[in-house]
Amino acid sequence: MTTQTRPLIDTAWLADNLTNPKLRIIDVRWKFREENGKGVAYDDRSEFQAEHIPGAVYVGMSTELANSTQNTPDMMLGPEDFGERMRELGVSNDSHVVVYDDSGLPLASARLWWALSHYGHKNVQVLDGGLQQWKLEGRPTETGDLTVEHGDFEPTVQSNWIARKADVLDAMGKPGVRIVDFLPNNLFRGDGVHTWGGRSGHIPSAVNIPAISNIDPDLAHIPISERAAKLKERGSFKLADHSKLLKHYQDKGIQTDDEVIAYCGRGIAASCGLLALRQMGFEKSRLYDGSWAEWSADEILPVETS
Q1: Which PANTHER family does the record cross-reference, listed alphabetically (predicted)?
Q2: 28, 25, 101, 104: which is closest to 61 by C-alpha?
Q3: What is the pLDDT of residue 34?
Q4: Topology of domain 160-297, per CATH?
Q5: Distance CA 98, CA 231 (A)
Q6: Could you report the average pLDDT of every consecutive run of 10 residues in the chain (306 residues)?
Q7: How far is 105 from 11, CA to CA, in rounded Å?
Q8: 17-50 pLDDT, tens per residue?
Q9: Same fold, 8-158 and 160-297
């Protein structure tokens, strides 16, 4: 098992270290649109080419990191393919990797942080506030693409970062184990058609902490369409203050010595939750990679609505 650095790093540190030869900055973005009530994920490299942090390389979550051999969409690449993709981006075993995205809360960046951690990289961090915070502070950006030399990263699977379907089944209602759904409240309750699954509802015994809560718990009940404006009003895209965030989780009955399994629709929003959990010191927290897309597709598995 590897010893990890703390998950978050701030913009001031990154600005002061842009020329560090061991630094590898990765811009990873994940977009989606709704078609007939269902989420369709896609990548848009042109947005990166138009504006990104100096020295960053780009990788698309849906087209370059998703495992197309799996029946469940957007599951992470296996170790061999993932390692090759990271080497193409210039990642080495001794790199200090900083990942970010442009979504206003860490979604794709948190997922890549999780994947690198799961595959044994010891020094990977998420830029707190991402590109939005960087721009808010008036820091420089650049355009175009960057060509880098291949790295030498070799994955070593760390099993303490991932939960499988069988693990979730075993965890339901088990003392000391909490299952957390990081999707919006309406999807957790089972209102209407589920954007990311074949059935509506949630995994039995799960509690709901919408991913946006990790930025500001007060935004949890704000409609998604209004959140970008609210975040700008807030004046920060960083994760919530440690004490406020910890209290929010404890109010949901989650304690730092609990084992926690995070899930969402396709493991994206849950990665944001896992990032917050690890930042707060929840060392026994894992990501259910298949998430609701896998769970809801199996008609044998139980579902709750509320």
Answers
A1: SULFURTRANSFERASE, THIOSULFATE SULFERTANSFERASE
A2: 28
A3: 78
A4: Oxidized Rhodanese; domain 1 (3.40.250)
A5: 23
A6: 74 97 96 78 90 97 91 92 98 98 94 98 97 96 96 98 97 96 94 88 97 90 75 87 95 96 96 97 97 95 94
A7: 14
A8: 999 999 999 999 988 777 777 777 788 899 999 9
A9: yes
**183, two tokens:** 């999707």
Sort 173 into a burial class: Cβ within 10 Å, 0-12 / 13-18 / 19+: exposed
Alpha carbon distance 265, 80 (integer Å): 25
Q: Name, in order, each residue with C-beta under 8 angstroms of 129's C-beta and a sequence gap of 6 or more.
A: 10, 11, 136, 236, 237, 238
Residue 304 to residue 203: CA distance in whole angstroms:
6
Looking at CATH, the fold of the domain delimited by 8-158 is given as Oxidized Rhodanese; domain 1 (3.40.250)
Cβ contact 125:53 at 8 Å: no
For the question of whether the overall pTM of this predicted structure is more than 0.70, the answer is yes
First CA to last CA distance, the chain: 39
CA distance 213 to 276: 10
Token pair belonging to 285: 């927290």
Rounded Cα distance, 109 and 125, in Å: 9
Dig out the tokens for 9 from the structure.
Answer: 């790093």
- Residue pair 218/192 in contact by the 8 Å Cβ criterion: no
